[in-house]
Amino acid sequence: MTPALRQTLVLSVIALAAYFGLRSLPDTQCAFLHADHQPVVAQGVEFCGLNEEANFYSPKALRFPVKLELSFADSGRAGSLRLLGEGDRPILPYEIAVSHTQKLHLHLRQVTGRKGYIHLHPTPTDDGTWRFNLPAWFTEGNPGGEFQAYVDFVTLRSAQVQLAETTASLEVRHMPVPPLRSRNVVQAVTISTQQAGKSALVRVTLAAPAGSPPLKLQPLMASMGHAVLFGDRTTQPGYAHMHPSLEGGEFEPNPTLSFRLRLPPPGKYDLWLNISDGAEDYLLVPIEVTP
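Request: output the structure for the sequence above.
Response:
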């Protein structure tokens, strides 16, 4: 075999491997995060991650090959983070797929000072730094405190969800602590079971404040809302990121959202809902899991 022919054969094998490798990747943004995704169109919107059961994870316990570094700016109104892979090499934006309309999902949970949660999508820079701003409604009256930070994203190389977590502090300011207020209210909560380890259907009915027009939800990141379940930061660290299934009532005035969840170990948990009625809103639902 001549050197030229050998080179041609090697290049052909590489090209075929690349072709079939690319064909094996998920073909939609949603499929990157949801392996069993089947497109569901309702009210003219294609929804992502419907009817999937979420699990409660501790990224550190699962030892994902990603390290998260996060800090807040001195102003207390912004921050930055880095994702470090093997050898502490920054994971760069071009290595991350778009999933649920964004490359990176950051979940910030405030655990001291006052309870709070916000779902952000940091903006990347070329050197692997991701920057984010905290909205005014979150920082106004915020006394600062300790935060838990979780990220979820999908690398193009693996086509698998990657999780990472860390903690960070926002400078404590001595001031009165008004509660973090929601525009809308939780009207009712039902859970099919509260027993740890069981599959549960959590249904949350929402409403607008008294005297306001009925609440009408709008799609948010290819879903009718998002929810994150957080455990106690010392005894049950971790989280579950969920998307509502279509069980009925989602499009009604004062709607009901349903979430499927494999319940974590016994304890008290915070379920934060992230919805949109034209602007984003966050609502807290305490959840107790029994033995």
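The longest strand covers residues 145-154.
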